[in-house]
Amino acid sequence: MERVLDAIKGKAEQAEIFEVSTQIVPVHFEANRLKQIQSKESSSVALRIFKDGRVGFAFGRGVDDVKNLIDMAVETAPFGPSANFEFPSSNDYPDVAVFDSEIPIITMEQMVELGKQLIAKVREHTPELLCDVEVTKGVSSVHLVNSQGGEARWDKSLFSINLEGVLMKGTDMLFVGDSDSSCRFFTDIDILANRIITQLELAKSKAATSTKQLPIIFTPRGVASVLLAPLMLAFSGKAVLEGTSWLKDKLGERVFDSKLTIWDDATLPYRPGSCPCDGEGIPSQRIPLIAKGEVANFLYDLQTAALSAKKSTGSGRRSGDRPPAPNISSVVIEVGEDRFEDMLKDMKEGLIVEQLMGAEQGNLLSGDFSGNVLLGYKVANGNIVGRVKDTMVSGNVYQVLKEIIGVGNEARWVDEIFLVPHLYCPRLSVVTRT
Amino acid sequence: MREQFTDILSKCNADYVEIRFEQNQTTQISYRGGKLEEISRTCSSGGNIRALVKGGWGFACFNSGDKLDDYVELAVKQAKLACGEGFTLPSKEPIMDIVEVPVKDNATDTPLVKKKQLFDEYNDIMLTSPQIQDSRIGYQDVNRKVIFANSEGSYIEQDKPDLTLRVTAIARRNGEIQQAGLSLGSVGDFSAIENLHDEVKEVAKRAAALLHAPQVKGDEYTVVLDPIIAGVFAHEAFGHLSEADFVYQNEPLRQVMVLGKRFGGKHLNIVDDATIPGLRGSYRYDDEGMLATKTYLIHEGALVGRLHSRETAARMGETPTGNARAINYLFPPIVRMTNTFIEPGGTSFEEMLGEIKDGVYVRDWYGGTTSLEMFTFSAGEAYMIRDGKLAELLRPVVLTGNVFVTLGNIDTIGNDLGMNQGGGCGKGGQSPLPVSNGSPHIRIRHCVIGGR
Fold first, then answer.
1. A349-357 and A212-218 strand pairing
2. Facing residues of A203 across strands?
């Protein structure tokens, strides 16, 4: 990397090099059978330069030709955004544990065994279930250097197990599934298996619902996919700066139910979303987003922060071959006091939503969502009576989160990056086929 | 290179081995509002080995081909560990070919300054339109050169250029935000996205108009789909069900997708065709080195075909269709669509509307997903239909339903086929894959539209 920095001297005012090498081994089961084992090696270099006051960017994967990379960055610079910030000279970062030395030595055979156990356990409950399972381990090394003396270096490991199951009867299909992930190796597959068995159990019978406004309990998976994913877009400093965030002028205002407290935290030990610093070398921290219903902060990278007269929150995340942009790390909703059983008991007629299909396709900026219930259950007089089908649930994230009846007292990790409890919402629009 | 590959592949202790080596160059440009927000150039090179042993696959990808023998050994070891119930891959005559794709105005060679000037013009048009306060432009061109060789002796070099442009206008009023967009693409031809100033102006007008539009009441309607969203329906709702990798190990789904089964009226024909020149889903050979084909999925209302890789065709005893594709060397090929469309019928758009007392006309799309039998797709724009005529503009709507029921409910097919080149398909973590889809206007009875 030093040789790249040397080669740039004289060609640019400032430079930053972000190098990643990864090794990932996914073991893939299809329709209950071991199907494919992969090994993926990849190394990449991202180069960002300031030239004549503008930012140039180039990315190379598996490319040794430093000169070509520099030429590409120089070529883009005249068209790039203006360089309104400095690369940080920091070298001092919090200790964030994200590497487990056991992961590099796990064998493919061990991973195959775990996958087999998981499938066997779930099919003990429902033998006809067709499971696709992926057991994945990964290790990556990151090295960041810039011309201002800043440097960061860390190793990260990842282990995850994902199951997607389909149960077919005629043309009726039931989709179940869940996943667990950590930077640490784990062998306990019972929690994951039991969550899927619960889904299968609750979906055993079918129930009809009606077209009207109904209360809904979102499970942690439902909260993450339907509510949290679109909500997080509004916390991007970029969306705020451009004025597209629904929250742009609401900093410090109480926009949400006072039972709602949410933060972003890149320092949580052994979480895939964690790291000692962001993709630009700004130390990781915990950032309150919603404090008792009040909008507390937005997320910034260096460039957006400079344009907004703010400080970077250490949220400059890199994805694939793109330059850093503000994004979440791990998002946590603070647990409340309500037991799931009590929320359920309170409900005369309503739905439990685990997954909505197509919810992410609506007008995300406005918060509107509308999706078909892929996995959800009807509740009547405090009891789950069966699975609902052919049913659309529609609402607006900001309206839904303005008034919440209950926040669950237990949270779990969903999709690697969301730690969330159940949320009990008073009314959403439900449309069903008659 | 060819001799090196042949030498390595011929020594392997596996039923089948292939190597794919690629060199890619990408340019990405994005605008947010008036500003060019991001511009980047990317180059990537690397390859992979895929090995088959008694039905189990091993796959190893790498950046540097220096230790090719080691990767071959690793992939074979993985395949042996994954092996189980075998299947026999019917052997194939080796193919030797070098495919160059002629591009009229190659985007990779187009200077950045010319690209920027065009997008600045489009952006100015949007941002100077009434009530438009923001805009987005996302552009990407890719030049992909792929070398493929396998243990049967095939050796193929192919160019796979691609280009996409998405233009979005965002209108805002009193805290309300609405947007409209245009998705375009071509086989690496920059001139395909030039001179669209009028269309861009229209996008801005549509976004502004949505601010004043009411929300539709959620209910069942007779719905007319424009070629864009009907194409999304053909791809998402039905096309994915025709991918044999979903079907072959799933006995109940196999029962549903039995060839010969009737899914729609005699007027319904759905095709996947990778051989049409100039469309983004087209190619000469797929990523298993199989010749591209035109495949009828539904013919005169009946299921007549599905999309195959070599493996799924062998396992189901059907003919391979050359539909195994990978987005790049980091992924193994899987069964994918190419250019998927509903063939035109004989009814004009006006005739189609004329018979509807109370319905909804939906246009354009935000996206669509499917979970086999169930689909949802989002229309970017919608209008009420009253007494056979288009009436007021509505807020964007989401349509949902069961694909089998919905195919049967298509009662009229228009005469105005349109292909949408702006799409990208995602499956198995591989996204976006260049595809196109299309349809004429179609009419569907009893379609559920979500609202409040």
1. parallel
2. none
Q: In angstroms, rounded to a whole number, what is the distance separating the alpha carbons of residues A363 and A368?
A: 6
CA distance to partner chain A, nearest, from residue B57 (Å):
5
Are the C-beta atoms of A167 and A174 separated by less than 8 Å? yes
* CA–CA dist A324, A318 (Å, integer): 5
Point out which residues pair with B296 in neighbouring strands: B271
Contact (Cβ atoms closer than 8 angstroms) between residue B200 and residue B223: no
Starting at the edge strand found earlier in the chain, the sheet holding A286-291 runs A294-295, A286-291, A262-265, A331-333, A418-420, A412-414
The encoded tokens of residue A318 equal 């890199």
Whether B451 and A393 have beta carbons less than 8 Å apart is answered as no
Q: Which residues pair with A281 in a beta bridge?
A: none
**What DSSP string runs through A211-231?**
SEEEEEEEPHHHIIIIIIHHH
When CB atoms are compared, the residue of A59, A79, A372 closest to B112 is A79
Q: How far apart are CA A56 and CA A80, in angstroms?
A: 6
Alpha carbons within 13 angstroms on the beta-carbon side of residue B339 total 25
Contacts of A57 in chain B (CB under 8 A): 38-41
Distance from CA of A94 to the nearest CA of B (A): 30
Q: How far is CA B316 from the centre of its chain?
A: 25
Which residue is associated with the tokens 């031809």? B189
Name the strand (E) or helix (H) holding A366.
Answer: none
pLDDT tens column, A109-119: 999 999 999 99
- C-alpha to C-alpha distance for B245 and B336, rounded to whole angstroms: 9
Q: Are strands B56-62 and A33-51 parallel, antiparallel or unpaired?
A: parallel
- Among B327, B309, B298, B297, which residue's Cα sits nearest to residue B248? B309
Alpha-carbon distance of A68 to A427, in angstroms, equals 57
Give the residue on B whose Cα is nearest the Cα of A367.
B177
Distance (Å, whole) CA B381 – CA B226: 10
Asked if B298 and B268 touch (Cβ cutoff 8 Å), the reply is: yes
ipTM score for this prediction: 0.88
The CA distance from B381 to the nearest CA of chain A, in Å, is 12
CB atoms under 10 Å from CB of A405, counted, come to 17
Question: B305 in contact with A at a CB cutoff of 8 Å?
Answer: no
Q: pLDDT tens-digit profile of A156-196?
A: 999 999 999 999 887 788 999 999 999 999 999 999 999 99
Centroid of chain to Cα B422: 9
Instruction: Please list the pLDDT of chain A residue by residue as tens digits (434 residues).
Output: 777 888 888 899 999 999 999 999 999 999 999 999 999 999 999 999 999 999 999 999 998 788 899 999 999 999 999 999 999 998 899 999 999 999 999 999 999 999 999 999 999 999 999 999 999 999 999 999 999 999 999 999 999 999 999 998 877 889 999 999 999 999 999 999 999 999 999 999 999 988 999 999 999 999 998 999 889 999 999 999 988 899 999 999 999 999 999 999 999 999 999 999 999 999 999 999 999 999 999 999 999 999 999 999 999 999 989 999 999 999 999 999 999 999 999 999 999 999 988 766 666 778 888 888 999 999 999 999 999 988 999 999 999 999 999 999 999 999 999 999 999 999 999 988 75
Q: State how far the Cα of A414 lies from the Cα of B236, in Å rounded to an integer.
A: 26
Q: Does A365 touch chain B (CB under 8 A)?
A: yes
Q: Hey, are the CB atoms on A61 and B116 less than 8 Å from each other?
A: no
For A408, the token pair is: 């669950």
Element (DSSP H or E) covering residue A108: helix A108-125
Omega before B90 cis (within 30°)? Answer: no
Contact (Cβ atoms closer than 8 angstroms) between residue A159 and residue A60: no
Distance from C-alpha of B399 to C-alpha of B388, rounded to nearest angstrom = 21
- Among the partner-chain residues B39, B170, B179, the one whose CB lies closest to the CB of A80 is B39
C-alpha span between B105 and B107 (Å, rounded): 6
Task: Flag if A61 and B45 touch (Cβ within 8 Å).
Answer: yes
